[in-house]
């Protein structure tokens, strides 16, 4: 079965950096768009970033543009999220997601989900 396993979350001070990883198995990785979403306590899950199947196209939420970078290594079945200049409002559980389609950035557009990794940014 499909498994997406996130890692790399933790506690960081404002202005710091973290790199999240998501290892995928049970699917033909290169045929899936990969995305990162986040959910803060009491809030709905929201789109963060997404990368196309071959990595040629990337999309970001306005709130993270210029600070976060999504990338993928199809040889390693892994997608990454480099997060720089972190802010307290970035505190959330971050989820990796996979989509066999070609459009859409809402949680409902994604087919598979990881269990999440927690990112806490202190002020």
Rg for CA atoms: 13 Å
Helical stretch count? 0
> How much strand content do the residues show?
over 45%
The poorly predicted ranges are: none
User: How far is the N terminus from the C terminus?
Assistant: 40 Å
- Report the mean per-residue pLDDT as an integer: 97
Using the alpha-carbon principal axes, give the shape.
globular
What structural class is derived from the secondary structure elements? mainly beta
SSE string? EEEEEEEEEEE
The count of strands amounts to 11
Question: What share of residues is helical?
Answer: under 10%
The largest pleated sheet is described as:
7 strands, mixed
Distinctive features:
123 residues, mainly beta, four-stranded antiparallel sheet, 50% strand, 11 strands
Question: What does this protein look like?
Answer:
- 0% of the residues lie in helices and 50% in strands.
- It is mainly beta.
- It starts with a strand and ends with a strand.
- The mean pLDDT is 97.
């Amino acid at each position: 079965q499909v498994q997406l396993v996130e890692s790399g979350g933790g506690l960081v001070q404002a202005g710091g950096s973290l790199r999240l990883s998501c290892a995928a198995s049970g699917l033909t990785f290169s045929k899936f768009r990969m995305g990162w979403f986040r959910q803060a306590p009491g809030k709905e899950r929201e789109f963060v970033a997404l990368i196309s199947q071959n990595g040629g196209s990337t999309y970001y939420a306005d709130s993270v543009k210029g600070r976060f970078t999504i990338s993928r290594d199809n040889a390693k079945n892994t997608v990454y999220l480099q997060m720089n200049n972190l802010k307290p409002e970035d505190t959330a559980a971050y989820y990796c997601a996979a989509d066999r389609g070609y459009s859409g950035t809402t949680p409902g557009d994604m087919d598979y989900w990881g269990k999440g990794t927690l990112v806490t940014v202190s002020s």
